[in-house]
Specification:
Shape of chain A: globular
Order of helices and strands of chain A: EEEEEEEEEEE
Strand content of chain A: over 45%
Largest sheet of chain A: 6 strands, mixed
Helix content of chain A: under 10%
Largest sheet of chain B: 7 strands, mixed
Structural class of chain A: mainly beta
Number of helices of chain B: 0
Oligomer: heterodimer
Radius of gyration of chain B: 13 Å
Low-confidence stretches of chain B: none
Order of helices and strands of chain B: EEEEEEEEEEE
Distance between the termini of chain B: 31 Å
Number of strands of chain A: 11
């Protein structure tokens, strides 16, 4: 059973546009929500993370929006660039443990 | 570079064989995690060790086992290999295991079972 559901599976965006990836979860014990970026042939790298006590976190062009009541969170990439083309994974974990439950990934392609 | 190292980078072996994947965590990290990434299953958590002790188990098959040594490096042993075990295997490490710790991933080992 997939603990974290991610959509869309793939996304094509024009350069300069906004990329939006959505994730949903059911387990209310989750309290840490990271996003990872993975390039072909590389391991996932932490992009940005949020805790449920805030509704939004922004780092540069990347923003996480978090809706605790809806049990949903999303990644927004502003001014998308071709270099952002990668696979993005959302994840969730709970205290204690730190085991990450990953979404199925979104393949993002930014067209020049 | 995350600071997590994994060897080998690629491994090709036959069905029924046994292989060992090795991971060295970032300096100072006590917790090691193993994940399997396949096209149809995504990133699946296998097992976690913290300072030499098993801390959590995920979707790890009985044919698979792992351990963390006193120097904190970890090994994942895969035995009686099947074609379906072909996947990318990632190791990650974190400083602690509080539930809110960043995990840093290694470059992975690509296992091909023929």
């Amino acid at each position: 059973q997939q603990q974290v559901k991610q959509s869309p599976q793939s996304l094509i965006v024009q350069k300069g546009g906004i990329s939006i990836i959505n994730c949903a979860y059911e387990n209310t014990a989750f309290d840490y929500f990271p996003w990872y970026q993975q390039f072909p042939g590389k391991g996932p790298a932490l992009l940005i993370a949020i805790r449920p006590d805030v509704s939004e976190k922004k780092e540069g062009r990347f923003t996480i929006s978090f809706n605790k009541s809806a049990k949903q969170f999303s990644l927004h990439i502003m001014d998308s660039q071709p270099g952002d083309s990668a696979t993005y994974f959302c994840a969730a974990s709970m205290v204690p443990g730190n085991q990450f439950y990953f979404g199925t990934g979104t393949s993002l392609t930014v067209i020049p | 570079d995350s600071g997590v190292t994994q060897t080998p980078k690629h491994l090709i072996t036959a069905t029924g064989q046994r292989v060992t994947l090795r991971c060295s965590p970032r300096s100072g990290d006590l917790s090691v995690y193993w994940y399997q990434q396949s096209l149809d299953q995504g990133l699946q958590f296998l097992i976690q060790y913290y300072n030499g002790e098993e801390r959590a188990k995920g979707n790890i098959l009985e044919r698979f086992s792992a351990q963390q040594f006193p120097d904190l490096h970890s090994e994942l042993n895969l035995s009686s290999l099947e074609l379906g075990d072909s996947a990318l295997y990632f190791c990650a490490s974190s400083t602690r295991t509080s539930g809110r710790d960043e995990q840093y991933f290694g470059p992975g080992t690509r296992l091909t079972v023929t």
